[in-house]
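User: tokens in, sequence out, please.
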């Protein structure tokens, strides 16, 4: 299609629209574009977060399955220890010996856990607080000079 003088009609370009736009129109366009950009970026971030959460869920499930299989493996190892001792003594005595050993190990782990918890309480970063107090004191001394 041609214009009445026989030349091709002028196609509006973004640059020609911007040249004729007032400051208010340019500000309005910029606001719309920034809003659209922010919405698009938020949508992209939401999609990425969903994908990562899905992968995280699969990974946690696999860790759970591995832990469950390890638990069954420990049970089988305990049964094997009982059966192994049962070749040298009565089965009931072998089971009692294995149970006593397991209780001793559980007690040692519990004592170790108690010490670890005692070192971790209260859950306040006391060393960082003391370091910050020392920094504040040093700054105060420097300011007073």
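Assistant: Sequence out:
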């Amino acid at each position: 299609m041609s214009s009445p003088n026989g030349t091709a009609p002028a196609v509006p370009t973004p640059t020609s629209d911007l040249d004729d736009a007032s400051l208010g129109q340019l500000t309005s366009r910029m606001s719309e574009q920034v809003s659209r950009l922010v919405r698009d970026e938020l949508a992209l971030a939401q999609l990425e977060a969903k994908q990562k959460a899905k992968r995280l869920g699969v990974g946690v499930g696999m860790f759970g399955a591995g832990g469950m299989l390890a638990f069954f493996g420990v049970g089988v190892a305990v049964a094997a220890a009982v059966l192994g001792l049962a070749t040298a003594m009565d089965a009931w005595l072998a089971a009692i010996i294995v149970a006593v050993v397991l209780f001793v190990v559980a007690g040692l782990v519990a004592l170790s856990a108690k010490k670890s918890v005692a070192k971790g309480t209260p859950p306040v970063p006391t060393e960082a607080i003391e370091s910050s107090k020392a920094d504040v004191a040093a700054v105060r001394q420097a300011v007073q000079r």
